[in-house]
Structure formats: C-alpha cells, structure tokens
Design goal:
Length: about 250
C-alpha cells in the first residue's frame, strides 16, 4: 500500500472502532427500549442470513439497485457530455440541474407510482433519479475543465462528437467522472431503498418498513447495519480507486 492508502486504512479502522464503541455506549444508556447492542445485532443478522426469505429480499434489492445505477450512470454521462460539448447549453442548463437536484425526491414519488406502478419498476426509477444529476454535473464539469488544446485538436481533426468523446474527452475526464459515479452510487442506493420502503412488496427496504410497523427492533437494527456496512464497504473501495485516478 502507498503511505496515503495506509493512512486512509488506519483512519478507517479507527473510525469503525469508534463508531462501535459509541454504539455500545448508546445501548448502555438507552437500553433495550430502542436499541440492540452491536453483538446482538450481528448475532441476529447471522441468523437472518440463514433464511431463504432474506436472500430473496436481498436479491430483489440488488437487482433493482444494479439496474438503477446503470441507468443513472448512462443517462448522467450522456447528459454531461452533451452539455459539456456545447458550452452555451451547459451554462444554461447547469443551474436548472442544480435546482432540480435540490428538490426533495420524495415529493416526486407519487408521480413515479402513477407512471410505473407498484413494483420493481418504481424502485428502479426512484433510485435512478437520485443518481443521474450528480453523475451529469460531475461529467459536465470534467468536460468543461478539460484542456482546451485537446478539444481544439479534435476539432482540427474534424472528429465527430462521438469520436471526440471516446478518444479525447472521456480519457481526460475519467477521474472526475469516477467521482460522480461514486457519489451517484451512494445516492442511487438510498433512492432504491426508499422506493422499497414506500411502495414495494419485496426488498431490504420493504423488510425494514415491515420491521418498523411491527416494532421489531432486532430486524430494524440488523437490516440497517447491513445496509450501512454494504454502502460503506463499497464506497471505501471506490474512494481508493478515485484517489488513485486523481493522483496517478
């Protein structure tokens, strides 16, 4: 490992240990009324993972999330490159994208339900709308900050927009684009789980909402812990790759 990666790994371990200690302290203060200890949560999660029903819910969540992330990345890249290649359009549309992104997405959920119905399509759509704009904005800024000489060279060579993106812009903008994908990953996961919580019959979000309605603290803590651990683990791996791309 590089020195910087060693420091990141050490800080991550310290943070995880600190969070678990804080969790245990909170449990000792609050008690069984609203919390379970880290050991109790991990123990219950282990038992939960031995059931077939859990794996059906997990598979449904992962399927919806994977499709939503693919849509968010593809559409985000297309929008970002299209606006980045046309400077006037980029300057006009960027404030609109930022304004659209600031809208609480939960307010759009009734419209999504009317358009897609209850099921996996609504979860995918709700997850995708969380990730599209971050990917588009990072891609737009990446193209905008690409060295002008590269773009001028492409125009002198009379490259088509598709070839310009493939041969010049994309390789130069990869670090910033990957940062956008990393941010989009986390937000798409949040959107997918929220979609499952409000209008779905399968998935980890549905399990979490059912546990809340039944006041099943063990299940609430276990599913929440699994989601946090999954998101944090993948995000840390993406962060390491992100830093390597930015620092060579």
């Amino acid at each position: 490992m590089r020195p910087q990666e060693n420091a990141t790994f050490r800080n991550t371990v310290v943070l995880i240990v600190g969070l678990f200690l804080f969790w245990e302290l909170a449990y000792l203060v609050v008690g069984d009324v609203a919390l379970r200890s880290p050991w109790q949560t991990v123990n219950f999660l282990g038992k939960l993972m031995q059931t077939d029903l859990f794996w059906l819910h997990l598979a449904d969540s992962l399927k919806a999330f994977a499709v939503a992330l693919a849509i968010a990345v593809i559409l985000g890249l297309l929008i970002g490159f299209a606006l980045g290649l046309h400077r006037l359009s980029g300057e006009a549309m960027e404030p609109m994208l930022v304004a659209l992104y600031s809208i609480p997405k939960i307010t759009l959920y009734p419209i999504i339900l009317l358009a897609f119905g209850i099921g996996i399509s609504a979860k995918i759509a709700f997850g995708a709308i969380h990730g599209i704009i971050p990917v588009a904005l990072f891609t737009l800024n990446a193209v905008r900050t690409t060295r002008p000489i590269l773009i001028k060279t492409g125009r002198v060579l009379k490259l088509s927009p598709a070839v310009m993106v493939r041969e010049i812009l994309f390789p130069a903008a990869v670090p910033e684009i990957f940062t956008g994908i990393r941010v989009g990953f986390s937000l798409t996961l949040i959107g997918t789980v929220l979609g499952e919580m409000f209008a779905a019959q399968r998935g980890l979000g549905y399990m979490l909402m059912s546990a809340i309605s039944l006041y099943n603290i063990e299940l609430i803590m276990s599913v929440t812990f699994l989601l946090v651990a999954l998101a944090a683990s993948v995000n840390m791996a993406l962060l390491v790759i992100d830093r390597r791309l930015h620092h060579g």
